[in-house]
Write the structure tokens for this entry.
Amino acid sequence: MIKYETLYESPHRLTDCIDFVKSQFNNREHFETVLTQCTQTHDKLPQGFMQIKDNKIIGYAGLIEKEPIILDDLSPFISPLLIGAAERGNGYGSELLRHVREEAGKLGFVKLYLTTNHIGYYEKYAFREYGLSNFTWGMPTKIYTVNSIGLPKITKQLLIEYPNTETILLRGSFARNDGIDVQDIDISVYHDSTEQKEVHIFENGMFYDIAVEPVSVLSDMDKLLCDPYIAGSFADARILFDKNGRTEKYLSDFCKAFPKSEYLKKRVSEIKDNLEKQYQDVLTVCENGNEIDIHCRFATYTWTLCDAVLIKNMKSPSWIRGLHKVSKVDKNMFNSIVDAEGHKTITRQQALDLLPLYSELWQGEFWDFMKKEIEWLILNVSETIGFHPLNICFMMGIYKRKDRAEYFERWKQITGKYFISPITSIEKYKAFHGKIMQYLSVI
């Protein structure tokens, strides 16, 4: 039987644990220091988790504040992760990873990182590649990220705030474990009351978007299944709290119904109507000739277009990284959208020069959240998917501002000719939209 102990709980195992870790690494002095520190910390870093079988250590995973790499704003790291040679191939590695993710959630951590050159292993356990870096001594490494499992701290806060809660669901990118796509965490609180509101919490660099709703909302499953912007998130949802133990079956029934054509057709039909309205908006502003309005409206159109492609392919829509997701589900549509937008890439320096504009458009805690998104986009701006969301974020930020003309001029000075416009003529735009409508009509 496998059990888990921490070095804090079982300091008598410290010497055996050091020997076990040292058998895989030569740097005994370093690990002796870190593992000894683990015996002194209960609810902070570092932490040491031992996997025990027949009273012997067969696996170890550490949770440390950071690795000695060039990127210094990521934390915490799983380091090291070890399974004894004699026990490999029995699934103990995946069990140990799950245990560390659960314990990290209890400590209040949302995302975890690790450095590795083992390509293909961690992807099997929901890890996603974050990027490349170098250790401080120069050796290159890949960085992977994964979500913690469960959010007990925020769940506890919500249960105190809403004591009549029936169930709490984790939804969106965090529930799907999209890895790099996790800066905002979508949570729904369903309670036995009529109160309905949206709550935003900024904590430890994360943005919690919390919807508080009556539990009666869940009674109309057909309505939820037909909603293009909600259905996918329920299909991906994870349970954080379930007072009566009925939510698991509810989500299971929802997932079985989600792919049925009758619901898919209704979801696509609704977003087609939305896209058609935005298409007409673009045509109207093109007739009026206001350059800023054209760009803002077309950015909204392409944003919704990406959502429509994702919804047709039974994926959840994405407010910033939609084109990135489209590239994963339908390469032909991805290429069509890129061609329609008339852009390819801008340079890394141009992207960096844009950053002050965004920091002026969004202030305070929301900018702290947006900055992570913008930085990711800048890292990827050498790819086609990089500039599309940068454009959407900018146009969304200036659309209702009185000084938008000044910002738009600064934008053009930095990006040069590489700004998104509705193709090269109204005729081509109409032909493109017709192609999109035909694509969405085939279910």
